Task: inverse folding
DNA sequence: TCATCTACCTACCGGTCGGTAGACTTCAGG
DNA sequence: CCTGAAGTCTACCGACCGGTAGGTAGATGA
């Protein structure tokens, strides 16, 4: 091997975070080993340990990093649209297109996160995903486009709805991300009542 | 050990299925070992292998068995009520109370199920959970209580909504099973539009 | 009474996983 | 040219997991 060594510190670290996101999102935290992640980032496991103290740290930092990233995209997307329904479609569509599997990974827990790490990921979830979505709902209620409701419950419900459908399979009826987003928002906004 | 031996064959087998359901539902299929399940059923792992050829067979039989069981409860519950909204509340309430985590376990897949086992679990899911729920929606559309819609999509959405909240934790705002069911159905039937 | 069967056990195997020790390579600064 | 830190590697460990080999206690039936 020539001088691949001595790569800039941030690049390898970043590749490891991305690999952890991609692989764990697809196969679950327990479905893929650290070797798999290291291999995907084109390094070996000890190199992974050079950058992250242990598995739980890698997990926590990865989740926080992708939540922050998707939080930014979510805010941008929902601000770009006007009207509550359109903002919701934009937000939901972004989450699906970005394959944002944060909530699902959060629910996996159990890898032995410390209380501190757990509260870190929860806080990242609320700050970056939950709150922006709830904000859109609150705005809609205030402007009269949406009815009065428990917006926290509705926001969580929306995220729970989006989550199982972010994978590349399992898009009902072969819907595209945009169609799926529109259908989800139509369902939740209009309801199924006559 | 006195004469615990020579227990009736069906009892131990049944206890293993129940243990697998309870433990895997709580900790995920990869989060608990066969030793854990055997221990919970008060036998050893080889005894588990006496009844089930391997892990994937135990998984498949367990999923089919609990789906069948919950399917029965689901039909009974939704038939006992009248009116689409009430039938939906009854159905959703049953699934939450029964902590029916079938859909989540199904999504885990990946334990190396054969194609045959996979189609077996999918078919059980559709026959016992999905179809009864879609039936309630179809009836509602036919009677005019619900608007025309893609009932397959709506049924899947309802199951996706229920699923993340069947766990013992994570009931938003400390809702009881019945309150949660009512809130979910209100959200989906009435929508959040003004 | 004795062979056979069911139901279960202890003890182990091969493989994988998270994690570590320590050597090697590259490169910047003196 | 030397040194030392940064970055990466090979090679390994103990724990655990799925699965198996081989044996045993007790009920059953001829």
Result:
């Amino acid at each position: 091997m020539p001088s691949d060594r001595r790569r800039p510190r941030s690049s390898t670290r970043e590749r490891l975070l991305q690999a952890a996101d991609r692989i764990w999102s697809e196969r679950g935290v327990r479905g893929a080993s650290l070797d798999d992640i290291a291999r995907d980032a084109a390094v070996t496991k000890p190199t992974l340990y050079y950058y992250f103290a242990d598995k739980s740290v890698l997990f926590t930092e990865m989740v926080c990093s992708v939540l922050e990233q998707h939080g930014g995209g979510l805010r941008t997307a929902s601000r770009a649209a006007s009207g509550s329904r359109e903002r919701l479609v934009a937000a939901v569509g972004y989450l699906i297109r970005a394959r944002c599997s944060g909530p699902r990974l959060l629910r996996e827990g159990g890898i032995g996160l410390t209380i501190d790490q757990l509260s870190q990921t929860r806080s990242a979830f609320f700050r970056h995903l939950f709150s922006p979505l709830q904000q859109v709902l609150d705005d809609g209620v205030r402007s009269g486009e949406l009815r009065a409701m428990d917006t926290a419950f509705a926001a969580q419900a929306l995220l729970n709805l989006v989550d199982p459908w972010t994978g590349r399979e399992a898009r009902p009826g072969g819907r595209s991300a945009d169609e799926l987003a529109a259908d989800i928002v139509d369902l939740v906004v209009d309801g199924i009542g006559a």
Q: What stands out?
A: The longest helix of chain A spans residues 115-143.
